[in-house]
Amino acid sequence: MPFIPHTEEDVAEMLTSIGARSIDELFDEIPAELKTGKLTQVPPGLSEMEISRLMYERAQQDGFYLSFIGAGAYEHHIPAAVWQITTRGEFYSSYTPYQAEASQGTLQLLYEYQTMMASLAGMDVSNASLYDGASALAEAALMAVRQHRTSRRILVPQTVHPVYRSVMRTIVRNQAIEVVEVPYDPATGQVAIDKLDQFAQEEFAALIIPQPNFFGVLEQVDALTDWAHDKQSLAVAVVNPTSLAMLKPPGEWGRRGADIAVGEGQPLGIPLSSGGPYFGFMTCKQELVRQMPGRIIGRTTDLEGKEGFALTLQAREQHIRRSKATSNICTNQGLMVTAATIYMSLLGPEGLYRVAAHSHANTVALVEQLEKLPGVKKAFHSPFFHEAALQLSVPADKVLNRLKAQGVLGGVLLENHYPDLKNTLLVCATETKTAEDLDKYTEVLRQALAASA
Amino acid sequence: MPFIPHTEEDVAEMLTSIGARSIDELFDEIPAELKTGKLTQVPPGLSEMEISRLMYERAQQDGFYLSFIGAGAYEHHIPAAVWQITTRGEFYSSYTPYQAEASQGTLQLLYEYQTMMASLAGMDVSNASLYDGASALAEAALMAVRQHRTSRRILVPQTVHPVYRSVMRTIVRNQAIEVVEVPYDPATGQVAIDKLDQFAQEEFAALIIPQPNFFGVLEQVDALTDWAHDKQSLAVAVVNPTSLAMLKPPGEWGRRGADIAVGEGQPLGIPLSSGGPYFGFMTCKQELVRQMPGRIIGRTTDLEGKEGFALTLQAREQHIRRSKATSNICTNQGLMVTAATIYMSLLGPEGLYRVAAHSHANTVALVEQLEKLPGVKKAFHSPFFHEAALQLSVPADKVLNRLKAQGVLGGVLLENHYPDLKNTLLVCATETKTAEDLDKYTEVLRQALAASA
Amino acid sequence: MLIFEHSRKNRRNYSQAPATRPAKNNIPDHLKRKSTPLLPEVSEMDTVRHYTRLSQKNFSIDTEFYPLGSCTMKYNPRACNSLAMLPQFLSRHPLAPEDTGQGFLACMYELQEILKDITGMAAVSLTSMAGAQGELIGITMIRAYHEAHGDTGRTEIIIPDAAHGTNPATAVMCGYKVIEIPTNRDGDVDMDALKAAVGPKTAGLMLTNPSTLGVFEKKVAEMSRIVHAAGGLLYYDGANLNAVLGKVKPGDMGFDVIHMNLHKTFSTPHGGGGPGAAPVGVAERLLPYLPVPIVAHEQGVYRWLTEEDRPQTIGRLSAHMGNAGVLLRAYIYVRLLGAEGMHRISEYATLNANYLMAELRKLGFEIAYPNRRASHEFIVTMKEIKDRTGVTAMNLAKRLLDKGFHAPTTYFPLLVPECLLIEPAETESKETLDRFVAAMKEILDEIATQPDMVKAAPHDMPLRKIDDVKAARELDLVWDPAG
Amino acid sequence: MLIFEHSRKNRRNYSQAPATRPAKNNIPDHLKRKSTPLLPEVSEMDTVRHYTRLSQKNFSIDTEFYPLGSCTMKYNPRACNSLAMLPQFLSRHPLAPEDTGQGFLACMYELQEILKDITGMAAVSLTSMAGAQGELIGITMIRAYHEAHGDTGRTEIIIPDAAHGTNPATAVMCGYKVIEIPTNRDGDVDMDALKAAVGPKTAGLMLTNPSTLGVFEKKVAEMSRIVHAAGGLLYYDGANLNAVLGKVKPGDMGFDVIHMNLHKTFSTPHGGGGPGAAPVGVAERLLPYLPVPIVAHEQGVYRWLTEEDRPQTIGRLSAHMGNAGVLLRAYIYVRLLGAEGMHRISEYATLNANYLMAELRKLGFEIAYPNRRASHEFIVTMKEIKDRTGVTAMNLAKRLLDKGFHAPTTYFPLLVPECLLIEPAETESKETLDRFVAAMKEILDEIATQPDMVKAAPHDMPLRKIDDVKAARELDLVWDPAG
């Protein structure tokens, strides 16, 4: 029996101790009419050898591509040490660190993570992670509403990741919170300030500020933050953690800094993995800490005064406060944070800066090369971080298919989420791309454009 | 500086402490005329990202094949747990357990290994590994000569792995030990007993007895062992460890059992890896233990009587006895033995039996299928374990090339080592092969034979 | 020592990052970062050493027995980890075209089908990243259902008092009022209270079965009739699905919506607190509302169903499709065990729990529901011991750590005083259970002879008892280099 | 507890092996096994748990500082492990056709070329699986060379008394008589003794440089002239190559043959005692005798050179091509570091050793060769301390374990009484060295105030001092279930 260690003798002895004649008898409290549990769609068990072969075949089927897709999930080099340590049994198979004395490894690591992440965002405090960037934004919106007390409206630019907006709507709708969207400026790809100013007289709990935004474009974060604060709204930053090594952190935006900064932690050492598991990070100002959802670790001492770590502020949480909890969140993404902490430790401030700077420089170089091709132009005239929108003169979906046939994934179509942006690709070239890769993309795109013209 | 943690300040402080002005000054005892160390063939350093990409590309270049090659190295399923545990830093990066108190993990594991391996071979004791099967056989020959005292000749059937014989000759030649070969019977593929009997009146330190032999054929081990013992020679077994789950172990051969049993440990959880690292195992009778080369672990107690483990019988070894040592061997294959011990623990006696039995059954089934093809016949009429020699009616090298083009590695050519065995393939189908795999081989061989006819 | 205390300014580890800064930098100056973030500057070796050593300070399934009630701490097969981490799976971008991910999507589709069968539901969405998010999805669908039927007066969710805290917290997050109903002496829901609670305001009932009290709710069919008759829907919290896997299907018990914690029942790793995954299954009537994406199999090709295919969907809950890598691990686990393995899980989990309950009872421990079968877990109450000796459930829990066992769940469910919720899971051997029983006996003896020593536990851990009051009072959440 | 003590008869773990026994079995009955081998019957989880826990009882580079002289315990980069274990590399059969292994062979060829450059030799063979096997190959080639020249009267190998035990043991294994020559007060070979030793019987000299005394043999060029003039050849034991990497090439020092321990200088893992790898380099005159296989690059294709290509080869030393996976790790390591990294290794290894020597000297420890630069290692002698207090080098070594440091090499080289051979390696930081110095100071203080406590060390390890006399006297090498 895979994974079940009982011998026949064990079972007999155990049943004797219990005073039952069979294992089946142990289920005698389940009404007979409910016992209809025949499984017809679960195949017979495979040996590890058989499932290994199946999974290798499926992996081979999916193959490897030279990918220029970003749009919220980014290919970065992940040092080998990250996952060799993260998958050690003591991290991989341990439980939530409720028993602090038996969990100092995880607890100290999370405290270190909180320190790194808060500092990276320029904020006072951090929690120990949320599910992903999208749900972290939704939690930030709820948090802003709790803090603001009078408004139940959230102002969200359309330059925020479209799926993040969608997830946020799904989650906040239940609490009758209204999400109001602000259009983007078609020339700059930034929040349309004139459109934003139309809301100047209305009350909002928060303004969401993406940096870089979904188009890769850099927003005027100082002005936006001050705009929010001027009207007593909270400023909620949605940021890419890699970019924070290069870009002014949310805590320094405007006169007072953002109040909450959230984002997708995946770029910090988490593999793309078809979309997950990733992790959401959430940092905020000290005064908001009791409104923050999710687990938080504190440094303290043991009875003898020795430094130690423990879950703290648990009175916010559902397992203590139940219906009065700050959030229903329980499980977080602990193992992903383990990886991210090791990743940040291996890179250090300069290493992370270089990853960011090369991602930026590669995308700049790629855009410069591609712009020279006839039929390619930048969609927006704004500085960008490591993604850019490029408008093609021919049907972009066909172009992408041609690239794919050459082993190149050329980006995502913006039209799916922005109907006005026809034939526009969002492309990304992180530090993983070499000059030859950029040339290859340029060349296959040239061919595809010629073939599609 | 990759892997070097020194900051400039560190270096300055350290040089001050030393009283040197520069690092270069620390090399001032090296005569200037010797300092010609310019490196011209070592390329500039790569980042981990760059070397990763290079190695992935080289791995992709080598690809995956459906392989029916055995001939001393065998494809078996390796449970995922084996290498996930073996590559834990505490095993992977630890040193030889000379400091017993700081190495109880490795020491206990090796003691467990010795127990498992001795029992598998049916012998009294085991060492903690040697380099590989071939060199283990050479060490066994030296050991036999030391034990025998009067003869410096070793009798080796040609049914022993040809490379093992070659390695043995390279190693024992230095000590003026003569290796005498016994031909095989072309009908049975076994040691030619009549040829062996021609040596009946000569003195030998040992007779080497392979089981299964290089052709996969099962030898008459009882008779061979008794033949050796009858003339006061040692019986040295060379065995496949997987086969020991099914086959009578060397310790039970003949009236008294083999004296020494060695072999290649690779089938016990070690990946094929282009040939290494593998490990050689060596087991022997109790009375030979002081002649055994390599490290040996003993169970003992600490000062308070608590059970513990330590290297023992070190007085045999080079670091104590220097020129009077039993062997010059120092490093063994500790990490491989770690994997093998975990492998044997995961499989248990019944699991290893099934691996052996399915390998046997698959090869039997494959041979039955292939024999039905016109132009294919078994080279030998003898029972075999999980390999068999098949004679083709057409040039076998061309057939192998055709199979390879279909993604199938069809075996090795025996002609390279046995000039008489023209167009003869040695094929192996372990438990990793499914019925579909056997059918695929049969079909591509059918096509290849047709095309070559 | 914190990793920051190993840090030294300008120490560099070039091999993990590009060797130089690039020349091109088009970031406008006013948007550039000027400060250096507090990331450590340590060598690769010191990072490896620091986190390897930290890991050794954890208890884990790979090192200790974890009889942690309601958490289903079972063995996480190592093959599930390595096969889910094959390079092609890891490198696949979530927005890569579907035809470059047919291998991955095949696994996801098959997992959906398998989970439908196991739960007896009409459809499954894999998107939920944790149990609590599964609950959120379920209650959101219940709300969507009532709204679609113009049934807007339903403002209450009924929840038994033994429920996990996530249940009431979720109901509130979804804008509902929570009506708590009590448990009777035998551990079942008080049916009279339920009848009194249901009515036109009832949106639904959330139920865990077997409950967190470790017993099977025998009248679940009647509860279903009562709630449905009142126009409410039934939510199944799958936290304890492990106990009835292959024995009863929640769909057959009358539930309309269910989440299942893959990190419990399907043995994906707990990872020190996550990631989890909690696919949601629905009966026919809730099918239109299921969150996207869902995997479809059409003409031999796998594809994502999106909002366009499912116009009534409640929407998306994650940026992509939830914790894909966790789902892969669960898929591999189910395929390893197969249909026959599903039955065995619940059988041996139940056998282990009832055996442990019997043995502890023989030692003199008080079982909270002595007349019931244990499901895959059961409750010991230390109330009498505490009243007599002052030794609490928490003291005993800490003392177990000293003896090399993780503590059971303490002080949950809230309605049993000084309780220990014990769940051994099916992957533990009788020998391990016997060693645990022996340790419990030792502690009983220690309570009799040296209660103060037990109260001061732990003694043999790297740290003595942690001061969590101080942790909350003198908040220290990030390290300050200034001290 | 031994794994066998977790075993229980008829416990089965089907997922790791085929689910049933096959029907076909053509093994003749008299060749079948009747007894059951003593392999444990434990669950996958209990195997994982047992060996995970065992691993935690080890010191290792990933957890502790290992100042182990002559062993070069440096950081083993994790990328070397994972990249050498890519599935295609692992699954490749050694006898698979060369055209299915061009990626692997390219790495091997490039490694040969790199090692040739680093050592200044004419050719390199990668086949040797350990330092001692490298020595065996080297001396066998020396023998082959003399034999090929009809020079059969050369029966002696000269070896300094400071040499590793493998040197004399190897010479004897190769049928030679060992002539040991002494070391002078400064740690150099006694040149007069060398001159007296050489002659028509001299087959060769084996030399480690820098020597195991931690000093560079300054007169190596003269030694080379003396030995060569007498018709002998020079063997370079590369155990300490790390100390001069990129600074001096053994070929330039006049050596004819060299082995280099990849598990030292090229940071492949020690693995608790192996596998190692020790490629052998030769000067032009020994090239024909180099063991096969060797990788050639011809017309853009890589192929093995065999006995056919090299008729004078001494032959083969392993069933295939040695420890291929170890070679891959070394290749990745060299590519990560590059040419500039080779220099840095020796520079910082030397800096660390000289710094540690200076700091320990300041504490009052006696340096064995106080007038010499340390190479990458140096020797402290405890003789005076032992004479005064009775505390031995071994006592100090054990006490270091208590303080979280692996012990230095003790009682080697044999000619320095009560010695500690200390090699910090380049990958350790100044902070770690300073912590080690602080621990050494603590122990010095302890020796002064409580010598008996130090003599009884270790105190804080899982075990107290192991009784190895008993281990050798009451041999217990395999577990007996009967007790």
List the SSEs and their pairings.
The complex is a heterotetramer, with two copies of chain A (453 residues) and two copies of chain C (483 residues).
Chain A: H1 8-18, H2 48-62, E1 66-67, H3 80-86, H4 89-92, H5 104-121, E2 125-126, H6 133-148, E3 153-157, H7 162-172, E4 178-182, H8 193-197, E5 206-211, H9 221-230, E6 234-239, E7 260-264, E8 280-284, E9 296-301, E10 307-312, H10 318-321, H11 334-371, E11 376-378, E12 387-392, H12 396-405, E13 408-409, E14 412-413, E15 424-428, H13 435-452
Parallel strand pairs in A: 1-13, 3-4, 3-5, 5-6, 6-7
Antiparallel strand pairs in A: 2-8, 7-8, 9-10, 11-12, 12-15, 14-15
Helix pairs in contact in A: 3-11, 5-11, 6-7, 11-13, 12-13
Chain C: H1 44-56, H2 78-84, H3 87-91, H4 102-119, E1 123-125, H5 131-148, E2 156-160, H6 166-173, E3 177-181, H7 191-197, E4 202-208, H8 220-229, E5 233-237, H9 250-253, E6 257-259, H10 262-265, E7 280-282, E8 294-298, E9 301-305, H11 324-363, E10 366-367, E11 378-381, H12 383-389, H13 393-402, E12 409-410, E13 419-422, H14 430-449, H15 451-455, H16 468-473
Parallel strand pairs in C: 2-3, 2-4, 4-5, 5-6
Antiparallel strand pairs in C: 1-7, 6-7, 8-9, 10-11, 11-13, 12-13
Q: How many helices of chain A does DSSP assign?
A: 13
Kindly state the percentage of residues in helix of chain C: 25-40%
Distance between the termini of chain A: 62 Å
Summed up, the domain count of chain A is 3
Q: CA-to-CA gap between the ends of chain C?
A: 13 Å
Work out the number of β strands of chain A: 15
The share of residues in extended strands of chain A comes to: 5-15%
Gross morphology of chain C = globular
Per CATH, the superfamily of the largest domain in chain C is Type I PLP-dependent aspartate aminotransferase-like (Major domain)
List the uncertain runs of chain A.
none
This entry's quaternary arrangement is heterotetramer
Name the strands of the widest sheet of chain C in spatial order.
1-7-6-5-4-2-3
Strand/helix succession of chain A: HHEHHHEHEHEHEHEEEEEHHEEHEEEH
Radius of gyration of chain A: 25 Å
Show the largest interface: B-D, 204 and 205 residues
CATH classification, class level of the largest domain in chain C: Alpha Beta
Taken together, the total number of domains of chain C comes to: 2
What name is given to the CATH topology of the largest domain in chain C?
Aspartate Aminotransferase, domain 2
Strand content of chain C: 5-15%
Shape of chain A: globular
Average pLDDT level of chain A: 96
Catalytic activity (chains A, B): N(6)-[(R)-lipoyl]-L-lysyl-[glycine-cleavage complex H protein] + glycine + H(+) = N(6)-[(R)-S(8)-aminomethyldihydrolipoyl]-L-lysyl-[glycine-cleavage complex H protein] + CO2
Protein name (chains A, B): Probable glycine dehydrogenase (decarboxylating) subunit 1
GO molecular function, one term (chains A, B): glycine dehydrogenase (decarboxylating) activity
Organism (chains A, B): Nitrosomonas europaea (strain ATCC 19718 / CIP 103999 / KCTC 2705 / NBRC 14298)
